[in-house]
Amino acid sequence: MAQDDVLVAGAGPVGLTAAHSIARHGVPVRIIDLAEGPTTLSKALVVWRRTMQVLDATIGYEKFLAAGHEAKRARFVVAGKPLATIPLTNEEHLLPAGVFIPQSETEKILIAALAEQNLQVAWQTKLVDLAVDADGVTCQLETPHGPEEVRCSWLIGCEGAHSVVRHHLNLDFPGESVDHRWILGDVEVDADTDPHETIIENGPGGIVALFPVGVSRWRIIANGGPIDPQHPRRDPSEEELQAILNERTSGGWQITESYWRGEFRINERQVENYVHGRALLAGDAAHVHSPAGGQGMNTGIQDAANLAWKVALAWQGAADASLIESYQQERHPIGRDVLRATGRMLRAAMISNPIARHLRDVALHIGMSLPAVRHNLTEFLSEETVTLRGSCLCGPGIKKAAVQPGDAFPDLAITVSGKRVPATELLRGHEATCIALGDVDCSALPDHFGASDRSFPLAVVPIGPGTEIADIDDLAKALGLEEQGVVLVRPDGVVATVGTDANQIRQYFTRWNLA
Predict the structure, then answer these.
(1) How far apart are CA 59 and CA 62, in angstroms?
(2) What is d(CA 450, CA 248) in angstroms, rounded to the nearest whole number?
């Protein structure tokens, strides 16, 4: 390993995203993991739209869709009676709201993207110690070939809730543990099932959530009641899982085979700062919370994508330390909000008092009948509500426009060569992108994104009459533009600034010394 490489610790979805997203900018990366190889378990089961938008420039959403099933609806049942079915699809979008896909398949897609960059994970390699100084990090590793000392310019800890990086930085992980037992099972079932929907059933026996892993393979998550200090943690038997299905569900579910059974506890914790000089934290190493809503892996992947381009520019000498500090400003509030929202969902599901449970169910019935509530729930799940508006990295936008700096670049339908495609395809193959709508002169813009000869290229994509992409109306309307304008899109798919001419892009670069 060269002295100035970036070292990523942890090769789950977050670490793989970090390594891939840094390497795409030409920065040398090494990624290590203690495990013998990629997970074979389903673990995190959904990739939401916001994550697909973040990755789409280099990993098309079609790859996730081909390996999974589109998330089309969520069905809620109370005491065996249908409460509501919430559609997750939206005609305004071409990207799916989400894709039900086992984590093992998500990791295969990310590992394949790494392989295209001639990168491989160093498995069976453990980070055992580290020392951070002003210029980098000295790391002690245990590898299959023996101990190794390496020096890296940046260390990114993506090794989950028991992060070695966080531990060796002596960081507190404030929060709390939820005093309930939770039961998990991945099972094959004989039932009339739909792999495009998730089912939440609630009744006197407690809540059970059912998520499709495949056509007839499903994930069961059930509340096992308060923790009994007299009984140690134990994995449920297949008979216990079947009893839960018999008592709490109305679909006639019959287990024919079980693949993975376990008991887990929920922690809700977040470190106060994700940035510690040359050592950085992302994903579960920085925040853990309830699995409600399937937000954990997605939040971590978005952490990694946000951090990666900033580390790349810093490594290239094309940005100063304040750009790295913006990672904390942008992503810590997102993690905090996810922690709070999933915590509220969890506690609502754990209500055991019969009167309180009845009041909750009545409130759910009323709320789910309101279009605004259903819309807000769909936006939360698909992570449409995730925004970086107000970040120090946000330039000017157009007032009252639907899309503002800090939002994900939209996936509105546009026509390219006679085919309707998501607007995110405009970003594909580019490291940073300037969208030029209409007759706007971009000739004076720099050809790179960053104040260094080594910084990565800026692609200018013209849209309008006389170009390959003549359809600009819907996109221009969403961005608040009329006849012409420019949109600068960061490497993580986030809108940086919107203006009527290229001068605003130049001003943005000057402000952050990016050109």
Answers:
(1) 8
(2) 56
**Measured distance CA(136)–CA(435) in Å, rounded:** 36
Report yes or no: 426 and 461 within 8 Å, Cβ to Cβ. Answer: yes
Which residue type sits at 177? S
Q: In what order do the strands lie in the sheet with 287-288?
A: 175-177, 267-270, 287-288
Least confident span in 396-410, 428-442, 466-480: 466-480
CA distance 474 to 479: 9
The structure's pTM equals 0.95
Which burial class, exposed, middle or buried, applies to 354 when counting CB atoms under 10 A from its CB (0-12, 13-18, 19+)? exposed
Amino acid at 512: W
Residue type, 99: V
Per the rule left: phi > 0, alpha: psi between -120 and 50, beta: everything else, 338 is alpha
The domains located in the chain, with CATH, are 6-45+102-173+268-344 (3.50.50.60), 179-265 (3.30.70.2450), 413-511 (3.40.30.120)
The mean-pLDDT minimum among 180-194, 195-209, 368-382 falls in 368-382
Q: Which two tokens stand for residue 349?
A: 């599901």
- Tens of pLDDT along 227-281? 877 777 888 999 999 999 999 998 889 999 999 999 998 999 999 999 999 999 9
